[in-house]
Design goal:
Chain lengths: ~200, ~575
Amino acid sequence: MSKNEVKTILLAGVGGQGTILVSRILTQALIDAGYDVKMSEIHGMAQRGGSVSTTVRYGEKVDSPLIGKGAADVLVAFEEMEAVRWSDWLKPEGVIVVNDYRIPPLPVASGAADYPDHCIGELESAFRTIAFDAGDQAVKLGNARVMNVMLLGAMAEAFGMDEFDWDSALERHVPARFLEINRQAFETGRKLARQSS
Amino acid sequence: MKQFLSGNEAVARGLFEAGVSIGSAYPGTPSTEIFENLGQYESIYHEWAPNEKVAVEVAYGASIAGVRAVAAMKHVGLNVSADPLFTAAYNGVEGGFVIISADDPGMHSSQNEQDNRHYARAAKVPMFEPADSQDSLDMIREAFEISEKFDIPVLFRMTTRVCHARSLVEEGEPVTVEPRPYKRNAKKHIATPANAIIHRKELEQKLTDLAHYSEHCKFNKMDLKGDKVGVVTAGGASLIAREVFPPDASFLTLGFTHPLPLGLIRDFAEKVEKLYVVEELDGFMEEQIRAAGIDCVGKEVVPRMYELNPTILKEALTGQVPELKDVKAEAVPRPPVLCPGCPHRGFFHTLSRRKKTIVAGDIGCYALGGSPPLSAMDTTICMGAGLTVAMGMAKAFEKTGADWTIFGVVGDSTFFHSGITGAIEILYNKGKVIPVVLDNSTTAMTGQQDNPGTGYNLEGEIAAVISIEAVFKAIGYRKVITVDPQDLDAMKAAIEEAAASQEPCAMVVRRQCVLIKRMPLEPALCYVDRDLCTSCRICLRVGCPAIFFVDGKSMIDPSQCVGCTVCLQVCPFEAIKKSE
């Protein structure tokens, strides 16, 4: 891409799902590549099992750290319904990487509301969508927690972010004893994204 | 090398570089991380004060003693500390003195979105408004220079997206600031009417001098492009405006916004055909610009409510709405909830089942006790109001003859913040209210900060533990009931004992927050025996996010359960069990 353009990646999930580590690795790779980067996240009430989102923007010069509806290039959703909730923030030509996994919110758990059916199918009919059960794939690799880095790998593939030094960014932010499994998770995410496009 | 810092981290760095010696704050989103990041700079003494008024007074005392000092808080904290601010403006400073207010447009985690820029005008103090992390570092350094040069406290106004957004920052070299030798100066620092009358006039002169500074301040920048459209903007809104206006728009971006550089604005206005004023929340600048006779477009198009973003501003200015694709699925709300194992659950569940009961609540995690399915709270206003609003309701019901049992509820940190005066009020003025402290031994909502009841301070030292029971007893409560909310039978008995008490009675409901890192968690978990589950849904009434209804029966998510057993205790069929 031309460095004059500003690109926006939106990460969305549920409090406690590990979006923060992913945003750290992502911003590290962008900064190392020489981009101006801004990142905005919301703390506070979101810690208590609420919906959380992080906006990452990069380009030659980035002004606003946040965006409004219809402005993100990529949505990485760690949970199905969060992908639906944040899909309005995507440009029409935007890409979604979504974890095929449900965390019922309290109104659903308590029977006051129903979890929406066919989230992934509806997302696919509106946007280019890459969906897989990252938790399941991560367990196959030997550690359920690397699902977040797997989604990052899928995003790097789906959004064509090949020019970045992902390995060095992983090294900077993942403890050494978990580095190898995170590398594998990143590569698995890439592979799954290639298969589904 | 540039660092990728949040605004809060950049301010902490800036405080270090500015040679600040003393900092006092009360935690509050989005300001909390400023003081959490001061620990890395050994040259700064930093503390959590019991409340924001204490914080401002401690910092001001340090300034009077001759060193640079800072106080930090969220926007509503400035309401609590407004009293010392207004008089400190009259008396002036010795060491530089800066008060940081972190506003929360959009109310991400606040009870209102008050625009604290008005405090700068009302208190007659200078104000900086950083837009990003580099501004935050550079301007906080300048704020101390200004404070000392003009002998006045400085307001440093941040917003959520300045505090919590990260951007690249060039760090600077720390300055060495010699403390001013202390000398008693009664005329300056004793605010009697005789002195205040003199200070009042001096303050007006300082504001005139500051208005001159504002005209030449390096943080008030003119960027002339075309002559059609000009934009006056400040703080975080300036970044959004930059993105939305066409490349040929001229900009006057202000970082020092009180007093406003009205001369500079007039010059700028004369260079463009149409002048826009783009600011978040109120028309703070716009009203002053209009009052100076300068025509502009402002709040008739730019929203005065909620947080701005580029899409909202573009639609406001041009009517253009973004093209959106329709995903044919509806997301269910995902409200924040009390954590699995939260000690507040047992208390609110017990009260939710009690008839003719009013619960006046307060600010903290326990405000979530007001949400369904617990729905066990009548009011939440501000820090400390749990006890005093309960008092007012009790007095009103004495007049009207309505029969309610009234509980006034505050957390432990809130009790030390501004609950103690309410406890005194209830006893002194004979209120039929049971004051309750929900003591989870931390300031939980803002991310587990210590407080006077926890035994640690912000410098990481072992500290005195202020006993809540001893405070109640010292005030004169004859009966103080301490109870573990996780034992539902004991919780219910304690509530009934308090409600029936003929002598002044207070309650301390005590169990530690499950998120405190020092606490080891019990590994034993609860599970549902699906053969015994009768689908009665009573366990769902405790509002635990670990309990789900699956295929017509309850199920407990083992990855979320911490084994608190509140659900086990409410199940009438003994279908919920605890693993050994």
